[in-house]
Amino acid sequence: MVEVLGKRFGPIGFGLMGFSDSSGVLGFTWRPNPPPMEDAIAALKVAADRGLTLWNGGEFYGTPEYNSMTLLKSYFEKYPEDADKITIIIKGGVDVKTLKPDGSPEGIRRSADNILAQLGGKKKLDVFGIARRDVNTDFQETLSILKKEYVDTGKIGGVALSECSVKTIEEAVKVLPIQSAEVELSLFSPDILNNGVAAALAKYNIPVVAYSPLGRGMLTGRFKVADDFKGRGFAAFFPRFQGDAFAHNYKLVQTLEDLAAKKSCTASQLAIAWTVAVGRQPGQPAVIPIPGASKASQVEENAKFVELSDDEFNNITELVNSFETAGRRYPDGVPMEI
After folding, report:
1. Which residue of 2, 135, 242, 325 is most buried, as measured by CB atoms within 10 A?
2. What is the DSSP annotation of 178-239?
3. Is 287 exposed, middle or buried (0-12, 13-18, 19+ CB in 10 A)?
C-alpha cells in the first residue's frame, strides 16, 4: 500500500492526463476534442467507487476552460460527498504558455494560486507536485516558499516531485517531507530501477506514483503498427513509437498478450499488476500506478487488480530485463530526470 499525507491508497490510482480514449495515449485535456464533461465525470465516479482514490493531474493539462482543475471542480460540485475520500495531486511550477519549468518565487506562487483558484474551494489541493525542477532557479527557495507560504498555512497538504533525479530527491528532503514522486514506470520504462532513483525514494520512504504504466497505451495491445499512433497527440512523436522502433517494441506487447491470455486477464491488467508488484519487492519504494481512461468501461477494466505470484513476477521481470526498448522515452528537448 502507498501512503500519502498519512492516508493509505492502492493498489491502483487514477491519472487525469489519460482521459482520452481507452488506450490512455492522449491527455483527455490535451486532445483537440476532449470528451464531454459528463462522460469524464462518469469515468471519475467509477474510479472513486472502485477504490481508485489517489488522483493525479496537472495545471497545464488542457486549456483555461477545460483542464484538470475545472474537471475536478465540476466533479466535486456534483459529488461533494467524495471530497474527503479522494486525494488529489496536481502538478504545477510550469509556465502554461511556454510549458517550461518555472520555479521562480513569482512563478511558483502564480502556479499554486492558479490551481487553488480554479478548484474553487470545491476540493482541497492535497498535494502540489513540482512538474519539473527549474534548473535556472534556486530549488531550495522554490521548496521553501511552498513550505512556508502554502503547507504551513494549510493552503495545501504537501509537496511532491515529478520526473526527478537522485540529486533533486536528496536536496528536496532537506527542506520538507516529500509526499510522493511521479515518475515513469512500465515494462517499457524500468529506468528508475536501474538509475538510482527508486533506491533514493526507498531510502526516504517516498512512494512512486507511476505514470504511463501502460506505455502510453501501447501495452494495451490496441496499436499494431506505428501508423496507429498518428493523430494521437504528443505521443505520436515519441521516438519509441516510430517505424522500426515501434516494430521492435511491439514484440514485447505480443509476449505480454500471450502471458495475459494464460492468466485469463488483459494485457493492461498484467502490465499494471507488474508495476504494483515492483513496489512490493525488498529495497524498493511502494508503487501506485496511475493509468488513465476517458470511458467508464476502461476504468472498470483497470480497476480489476490482478495478483501476481512470485514466479509470475520473476518471469515478467526477466522479460523486462532482457528486452531493450528501442527509442527514448521522450523526444529531444523534453527534460527528463532533473
Report:
1. 2
2. EEEEEEE-SSS--GGGTSSHHHHHHHTTPPEEEE-TTGGGGGGT---SGGGGTTSGGGGG-G
3. buried
Q: Is residue 143 part of a domain?
A: yes
79 catalytic, yes or no? no
Task: Give a yes or no: residue 174 inside a domain.
Answer: yes
Distance between CA atoms of residues 318 and 147, nearest Å = 42
For 87, the grid coordinates are: 486525494
Q: How much is the pTM?
A: 0.93
Assigned domain for 314 exists: no
Q: Is residue 244 included in any domain, yes or no? A: no
Sign of CA dihedral 105, 177, 197, 69: negative
291 alpha-carbon distance from chain centroid = 7
Catalytic residue among 61, 75, 150, 211: 61
* pLDDT tens digits, one per residue of 43-86: 999 999 999 999 999 998 888 888 999 999 999 999 999 999 99
Task: Give the pLDDT confidence of 140-159 residue by residue, as tens digits.
Answer: 999 999 999 999 999 999 99
235-277 residue pLDDT tens:
778 888 888 999 999 999 999 999 999 999 999 999 999 999 9
Total structural domains within the chain: 1
